[in-house]
Amino acid sequence: MSNPVLVCVFRGINAYETLAGVLEGLTQCREKLTTSGIFPQAVMALTPEVTFRQAILFFTEADFVTGGSGLKEHTYHSLQSLCFSFSVGERWRCRAESLFTYLHTGAQVLCTVLLIKPGVWSQNLARILRNLDLEKFTLVGMKHIDLEPAIALGLLPSEVKEDPAALEAHCTYLTSGTALVLCLQRPNAVKKLVDLLGPEDPNLAQALDPCLWRAQYGTSTVHNGFYGSKSYQMAVRDTKLFFPEGLCCAKCQMLEEEEV
Description:
Blueprint: E1 6-11, H1 15-28, H2 30-33, E2 42-44, H3 48-58, E3 79-84, H4 100-105, E4 109-116, H5 121-134, E5 138-145, H6 149-154, H7 158-161, H8 164-174, E6 179-187, H9 189-197, H10 202-208, H11 213-217, E7 226-228, H12 232-242, H13 253-257
Antiparallel strand pairs: 1-3, 2-3, 4-6, 4-7, 5-6
């Protein structure tokens, strides 16, 4: 009881695994981080249920500090509490959005964009739509589109843009035929879709898991089958870009906040 204690709450995608890795690294480097030979012991919550019990024990709703729209993808399984060995003293309070709501309600319903590249959707559409249904996605927007070079360029990763040959190959392919753009809705839609697609390189995807979609439908880094919004911000951008006329779905919090 005489030693100080600090209680912290962290929020992030894959937060349990990430935080566990950080703590393991700190433990391994403890001798380099302190000259006194005394390193604070750390205890972290291992489940959302324990996290919630610890959070309501030490904090009120006014204690939490949250960021902006970039946190929309962080949900029930992303909230962490971590206890270090030093004393619970005065708490700095601020009026901010509470995270208790996220713990109670679970994952937030979001929209994301999936672009099925030329030559892929025309042969595999029925199977792709079936897989989306199995993954609990709701289709709220769909259209055929012939990509303009400027739009195709905006969909490419930064590393591709740094290689002139790769950039030309990607742009040539993306503008070579009609693509199919889908707007999809479900809890944690952005991260779920990214996880399903797998790495940009189909060979790497195949090595990781043959069931990843780029492993199944892709043949090269250029002909890899799909583009998917990689973050919440990009999902909002892509939704506004490809569906400026709106979506055929009931309004969700994301759409209202981002004026989609």
